[in-house]
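OP here, attaching both records as promised.
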Amino acid sequence: MRRRSIIGTSLAAVVAMGLAACGSGGDDSGASKTIHVTLANHVWTENLKKALPEFEKQTGLKVEINQLGEDQLSDQYNVKLNAGSSDLDVMMYRPLQEGKLFAKNKYLADLSDQVKSGKDWDYSDFQSGPVEATTYEGKTVGVPIITEQEVLYYRKDLLAKAGLSAPPKTLDELKAAAAKVKATTPGVAGFVARTGKSPAVTQFSSFLYSFGGDFVDGSGKATVNSDAAKQAYAYYGGLIKDSGPANVSTDMSWPDAMAIFTQGKAAFYTEANSLYKNATDPAKSKVSDTVGFAPFPAGPAGSKPYNIPSWALGVNEASKNQSNAWKFIEWATGKEQTLAQQKAGVPSARTSVWADPQGTENYPKDLVEAIKASTQGGVAHDRPVVVKVGQAREIVGQPIVDAITGKDPAAAADTANDAFQKFLDDEAK
């Protein structure tokens, strides 16, 4: 899934910092003072490039950045990693999109020793969800750099008009509040969210977890037809069918759902926090001055939104410059550089920057509280953790569409579970 980052673009000056000695690892027989780093087009990358001269000055190393769009990035990785190319040292990758594929194929170097080597760098400062998502079979294969959590966007004015004093804290309250707004405010939906069967999976996941379900169980068996999953499909689809926009489309991704919300046509919207400036920027939103944020509402199993790393840094296993590659990652993900990124609007995986007033001063206060709540019990994945992610999303997303269009969500879940189990069995061969 492609998510555009619509967050801050400036970076505060980075304070000079000493680099802890990196641990040994990998084949450095061809070590070079030039580190080849491949990064995605992202505000994080732009911020980092501005601070890069400081790293080069401190270390005497030179960094060559190859910056690409997501499609081009995937194409290059596909070609170079399959060929075992060593001219790629550091990789910016999506842990939940290609992480399992990369780790399973041994494209990512084991960084377990390196992340434990520096007390100043402090691996324990990273949130548990993003750390879990960048770990494979007990080995650290990446360091999270950008995170996302699902939160509730809402309209303060519409709540007041409907006689509601606070945003809903539970899914039952959300359902009742959405119905009340739709009934009392003509032309405005009570709730909007993604509806396309693949795009909706990530945001549906928080509903699934909060009902007590997941895509697979502890043994890796498909569970999208568990009682909890069936309840979650029925709830999500029913909420959109009953309280969503009139004649709602079933192929909406986030730009479509966000547009409905920012044009003033919906009261509630669940979405990734990283997209919040679309709702609060007056240039993008007609309702910017009335938008509020709240933690994801609790279901029968509590409030269990995802807390994931949308991007991470890893080291190419075939690189012959792994020690210097780690020096770059250690600097780029260190506390000072991370705080600078956080101040520029890039949500971080480090706990310390969310506790630092400097790290949160540029975010809406209620959004900061919602994010902090999300990191407490957040789930480390927002889609099935598989190699062929796109195919899996199409399968588990079908019951969402069926529920929205009024079909039996329980029957749809049974059909999807059979297909998903076959998919899992085939992938395990």
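Record two, same layout:
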Amino acid sequence: MSASSLPALPKVTIRSIHVAPLFGESPKGGWSAEIRPEDSVHALIAVHTEEGLTGHGSVFTDGRLASAAVEVLEPLWRGENALEPERVTEKLHQNTFWMGRGGSLTHAISGIDIALWDILGKALGQPVGRLLGGTYRERVKPYCSLLMEEPARMADVIAPHRERGFRAFKIGWGPFGRRDDARLDEAIVRAAREAAGPDAQLFVDAGASDAHWPQGLKWALNTAQMLKDYGVGWFEEALRPDALEDFCVLRRASPVPIAGGEVLTRRQSFLPWLARGAFDIVQPDVTKVGGISEQRRIAWLADEFGVKYVGHGWNTALGLAADLQLASAMPHCDLVEFIGGSPYVDGIVREPFTVDDEGYLRIPARPGLGVSLDPHALARFTHAPAALFAPE
């Protein structure tokens, strides 16, 4: 059969986009100005089509900002073909440069793009990972992302998740680096290593994107030396997020790998960090950078520079689902981030994520993102959850 005789895919027309802010049980972020449970820092997005297909995405920003952004973008997305995620989302990017690249508009476009990939997978009966070029793996190890506490409490923080089956952990934020007490920092890491066990992978996130981060390069250099003694797999956000020169120095000197990039958006922002050799591991967030389309470009760009890609995933079940599909389609991605105990991950899908006996997550093989939202569970966290499943 010739290419010209193959049946053409019909257009699937975007009819409406609904934003559902999540609030009520927002997990602690560890920030010095801590978010409250009723604050909205994540929102879900539903893209509805005239043909009845609906796709879902996730946005890491205040739901009010996401709603305003979708409204601003409406003349660009209404009536577009939902089967062409990269073209449609690049259209949204290209026509909004003058409003500021990388802020709320980019965040909202991220959720739209994820939802469009979900629609494309459903329309073709294929998981998104296969549509991204092919699958390198069917499962991937999740690292359980947890907040640091005082040393005496770290065992209580880690133990329930180790019992659940996790064999990789990241501890971050909390008092670490914020009290100018190197002995406290080490005691926290020591307690975490003891709780996780010698066989577990352990990563440390200083969280230097917090407001008015007090530490600098010398602290990061000294702390990296300490982390080596506890077999830490990477040191994340060790410096303020704009300290490119210091990151380059730290990466060259550190005995442990250096990770970062979660606050950057769009591929253009990542290029100088990759070209200058600032990271061993780059961590774009699919719910912020521009969605799956942009995340894939960043991941392959990192691969060209010999930098490992592991997505930042402090978001929702849909963000995790997108990261799992991307992990299946990238040759060297062996980890995904999993927020420990967040109801926005474990509590909004029909089938909760399950860690197997070896500490791995199975990558969904169903069409699209491969996960299904639970409308009854969502009613606890958002107004009008029905609008996520059918246009109002």
